[in-house]
Automatic annotation (TrEMBL):
Taxonomic lineage from the root: Bacteria, Pseudomonadati, Pseudomonadota, Gammaproteobacteria, Oceanospirillales
Provenance organism: Marinobacterium nitratireducens
GO MF annotations, alphabetized: electron transfer activity; heme binding; metal ion binding
Presence of keyword Electron transport: yes
Name used for this protein in its record: Cytochrome c domain-containing protein
Signal sequence residues: 1-24
Keywords, ordered alphabetically: Electron transport, Heme, Iron, Metal-binding, Signal, Transport
Keyword Ubl conjugation: no
Domain of life assignment: Bacteria
Sequence ranges assigned to domain Cytochrome c in this UniProt record: 27-127
């Protein structure tokens, strides 16, 4: 009985990991760069870029949330302890205020899953 439970948990974890890999593989970075045009209102995405209203997003994928050096984050962001994985970025980009209540980010989110995948694909290239 205990082994069946563990198999279920293991299978779920493998599915989550695999879905993250698939998310990265089934994306279009060119379309993501076009979507990023909206983000440029508040963010830069250059290796030597400075912060604007939002933090520079160069290297954001894999970075600890709320850790861009020199950027003033909301208390809600300062309390985050996760890294920006594909899954975390996807959840945040879908609904920033829902994912991080108290965020200063005044953006309603991207409801279209493919558009989020493409944007994350573009962000993955910025490392």
């Amino acid at each position: 009985m205990k082994h069946r439970y563990l198999q279920g948990v293991g299978g779920t974890l493998i599915s989550l990991i695999f879905s993250s890999v698939v998310l990265a593989a089934d994306c279009n970075p060119v379309a993501g760069e076009k979507s990023f045009a909206t983000c440029k209102t508040c963010h830069t995405a250059d290796a030597a870029g400075s912060h604007m209203v939002g933090p520079n997003l160069w290297g954001v994928v894999g970075r600890e949330a709320g850790s861009a050096e020199g950027f003033f984050y909301s208390p809600a962001f300062e309390e985050l302890t996760h890294d920006w994985t594909i899954a975390e970025l996807d959840a945040f980009l879908k609904s920033p205020a829902e994912r991080v209540p108290g965020t200063f980010m005044a953006f309603g989110g991207i409801k279209d899953e493919q558009q989020r995948q493409d944007l994350i694909c573009f962000l993955q290239q910025l490392n």
